[in-house]
User: Which sequence fits this backbone?
């Protein structure tokens, strides 16, 4: 199904059309367009500063200025304020993880309000991430980097969102932890979750991604299905430089 | 008679108690300032004026509608909180994206306007406000005579400070508040209405000042400048405790009230400046304040 042409798949769950974004005078996104279908996982790749994080921030309405069209489940998000964006069923796991130091693990987990029914229960989350259960009363930032990443993902799973934006979830983590996070994402995907992943680690991304979008200098250069990843490797190395 | 360091024990305990009462007001006021600074990053110079507004609200309620102390204890802080919420929404909130200095200047100007208006209307002289009947009289503690109302103020202040501390440290709303203090954008991205949270926080801080004003009305007279006299000391208290530290503001408020009281016993000449001397020393040794974190 993943290689089916867009026309046969109906309306994407997340539709981004000709989005431009700015930080002050600096024009960081140029006519970015992408589609994310229900149950699909796409991965944005590109060099640092290519506009991957800015794309996620534009979708969450966190850029100081943006233009263009963003639709979630058909709903035009242009006029939706930041604090109502999540209520359209979208959750954000930022690159810096955003674990709050003055909140315990439990409080961090319970922080994002439920935006829809069908989120995971706290028990199910603690089953999935047993180390979080053990440390539920520690301050959030006393966790290891891997545990913080798991907490950042876990707290979104509680909220019942349909789409999760994940910004470099494997950055700076040990291989065994990366493996664990990969397993979790595969599980999520099986359960029907729709994921938008920003990732430099192709080997990690190919396990979950259905399609890749290649970014450079705030532009989307091309998109291709995961099956073509090997054939595109030279091109990727040239653009991404890793 | 029992003497400690050459001071009669009753005099010492008496001043300790007076210090504790003053400390109750320092704690209530610095708590409100710390709550506002923590989330809004605004140094609320209007805090003294909001304290004065609370006292005047109680006074006007009694003078014009006959509503007494106990209902006023609830109504006046709500009035001050409501007025402050409107001010935050319509004016202060427009300054958040600018340098913090603008928030300070705005609230300073607001304080001048409020105090000037009341001074023009009521004159600089204080208006008396009778303490509630049920708390008239006093209790002989053996070492001193404690007016019941002052005892009530001490207890009320402790209860209020503890409640606010619990609200912030132990509830879900408090978790939003602490999280938004660290990273407002992310909390907003999670679907929390942070602008509303800012308005409520400012209203809470101002309401606490109003509540302190009502409690103060029977002790100090109700006068337009009652806040500006007190607020300078309270700012010193907040600086000593550490900007934005809730628990620090409360503890420092009581401790400094008591230290000030003790200074009155041992070296009365220094009692007006002891808080500022302590502030200077703390700033030299721990610039972030006793309970503050380095930013």
Assistant:
């Amino acid at each position: 199904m993943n290689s089916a042409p867009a026309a046969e798949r109906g309306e994407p769950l997340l539709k981004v059309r000709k989005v431009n974004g700015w930080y002050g005078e600096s024009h960081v996104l140029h006519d970015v367009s992408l589609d994310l279908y229900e149950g699909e996982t796409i991965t944005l790749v590109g060099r640092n500063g290519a506009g991957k994080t800015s794309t996620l921030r534009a979708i969450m309405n966190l850029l100081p200025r943006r233009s263009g069209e963003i639709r979630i489940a058909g709903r035009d998000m242009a006029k939706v304020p930041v604090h109502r964006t999540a209520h359209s069923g979208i959750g954000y796991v930022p690159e810096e993880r955003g674990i709050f130091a003055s909140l315990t693990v439990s409080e961090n987990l319970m922080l994002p309000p439920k935006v829809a029914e069908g989120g995971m229960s706290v028990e199910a989350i603690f089953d999935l991430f047993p180390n979080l259960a053990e440390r539920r009363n520690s301050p959030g930032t006393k966790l290891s980097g891997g545990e913080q990443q798991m907490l950042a993902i876990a707290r979104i799973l509680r909220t019942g969102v349909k789409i999760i934006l994940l910004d470099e979830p494997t950055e700076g983590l040990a291989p065994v932890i990366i493996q664990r996070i990969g397993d979790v994402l595969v599980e999520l995907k099986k359960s029907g979750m729709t994921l938008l992943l920003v990732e430099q680690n192709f080997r990690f991304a190919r396990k979950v991604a259905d399609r890749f979008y290649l970014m450079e200098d705030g532009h989307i250069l091309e998109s291709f299905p995961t099956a073509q990843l090997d054939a595109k490797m030279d091109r990727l190395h040239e653009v991404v430089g890793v | 008679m029992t003497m400690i360091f050459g001071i009669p024990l009753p005099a010492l305990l008496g001043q300790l108690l007076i210090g504790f009462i003053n400390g109750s007001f320092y704690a209530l006021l610095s708590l409100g300032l710390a709550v506002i600074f923590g989330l809004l990053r605004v140094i609320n110079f209007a805090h003294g004026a909001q304290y004065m507004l609370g006292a005047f609200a109680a006074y006007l309620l009694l003078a014009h509608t006959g509503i007494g102390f106990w209902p006023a204890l609830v109504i006046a802080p709500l009035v001050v909180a409501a007025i402050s919420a409107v001010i935050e929404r319509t004016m202060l909130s427009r300054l958040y994206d600018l340098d913090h200095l603008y928030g300070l200047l705005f609230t300073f100007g607001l304080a001048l306007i409020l105090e000037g208006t009341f001074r023009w209307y009521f004159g600089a002289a204080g208006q008396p406000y009778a303490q509630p009947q049920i708390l008239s009289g006093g209790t002989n503690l053996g070492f001193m005579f404690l007016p019941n109302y002052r005892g009530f103020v001490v207890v009320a202040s402790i209860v209020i400070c503890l409640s606010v501390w619990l609200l912030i440290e132990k509830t879900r709303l408090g978790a939003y508040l602490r999280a938004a203090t660290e990273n407002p954008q992310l909390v907003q991205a999670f679907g929390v209405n942070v602008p509303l949270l800012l308005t409520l926080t400012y209203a809470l801080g101002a309401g606490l000042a109003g509540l302190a004003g009502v409690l103060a009305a029977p002790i100090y007279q109700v006068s337009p400048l009652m806040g500006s006299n007190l607020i300078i000391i309270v700012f010193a208290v907040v600086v000593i405790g550490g900007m934005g530290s809730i628990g620090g503001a409360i503890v420092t408020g009581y401790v400094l009230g008591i230290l000030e009281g003790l200074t009155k016993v041992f070296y009365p000449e220094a009692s007006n400046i002891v808080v500022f001397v302590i502030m200077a020393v703390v700033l030299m040794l721990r610039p972030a304040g006793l309970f503050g974190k380095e930013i």
About this structure: Chain A touches chain B through 23 residues (CB under 8 Å). Strands of chain A lie at 14-23, 26-36, 41-46, 65-72, 75-76, 90-93, 163-167, 194-198, 211-216, 219-225. Chain A is about 30% helix and 25% strand. Residues 175-190 of chain A form the longest helix (16 residues).
